[in-house]
Amino acid sequence: MRIAVIADIHGNRTALEAVIADIRRAAPDMVLHGGDLADGGSSPVEVADRIRGLGWAGVMGNTDEMLVRPEALEDFAGGSKAPAAMWETIREIAAATRAALGEERLAWMREFPLEIARPEAGLALVHARPGDCWRAPAADASDAEIEAIYGVLGRETVAYGHTHVPGIRRLSGTPKLLINTGSVGLPYDGDARASYLLLDEGVPEIRRVEYDVKKELALLDACGLPGSAWTAKMLRTRGPAMP
Questions:
Q1: What is the pLDDT of residue 7?
Q2: Nearest to 17 by CA among 163, 184, 166
Q3: Between the CA of residue 22 and those of 19, 48, 132, 185, what are the distances in Å?
Q4: Whole-model pTM above 0.90?
């Protein structure tokens, strides 16, 4: 079985369309999404409608939850050491994205589960970790920590996103593979190309897909949504940045 897993599109429709074209060439049996579909990019409505139209099942990301349950953002921000100004910008972005999407799309997103299992492929998918779409383990977490966090899923392979940095980690326990898909729309690893996971009979491949970043930057410039300049800065630097 071949399974593609995409995550962290963040409203980047130019990158999404390039990834969809690559997925069609790869011809997987199934495509799943790992959340964070719409918030922060030029085209939240178009991205949400595209994923919904394709019928791809997926899980709740933290920005998805922020849109459908605003108090989740306040719960997380309340324990954060990040500057208050950053959270205020995020609130403005979320409010505008929420208004653009409208209640019918938000109701669809509200149904996303926190995790999905595909037993036939030995795969589980979460956005960050089981039961929590806001907190992924640190990059230097020990094997014991990783197995304690993700072993509860009981699958040989666990895929997640959230950090926007792709990677494949091999373990001796359960899971045996922990795979970060990377980000379709906002990579943080210094590589401008979109990133997603292709699992072919359990063998993982992080696929990188070139797309027209200048086109997406132009869409961000024209979209009129709050925070678009912040997103553009991160696309240009290929990494996280403050507003």
A1: 98
A2: 184
A3: 5, 19, 30, 14
A4: yes
Contact by Cβ (8 Å): 213, 220: no
pLDDT at residue 100, as a whole number: 97
pLDDT of residue 58: 98
> What pLDDT score was predicted for residue 55?
98
pLDDT of residue 89: 96
CATH of domain 2-237: 3.60.21.10
Label residue 26 exposed, middle or buried (CB < 10 Å: 0-12, 13-18, 19+): middle
End-to-end CA distance of the chain: 42
Alpha-helix runs per DSSP H in the chain: 13-26, 44-54, 62-68, 70-78, 84-110, 143-150, 213-223, 228-237
- Residues 211 and 9: their CA atoms lie apart, in Å, by 13
Positions in the chain whose pLDDT score sits under 70: none
Domain ranges of the chain: 2-237
Long-range contacts for 221-227 (Cβ within 8 Å, ≥24 apart)? 222/42, 223/42, 223/43, 225/42, 225/44, 225/93, 225/96, 225/97, 225/100, 226/89, 226/92, 226/93, 226/95, 226/96, 227/40, 227/89, 227/90, 227/92, 227/93, 227/96
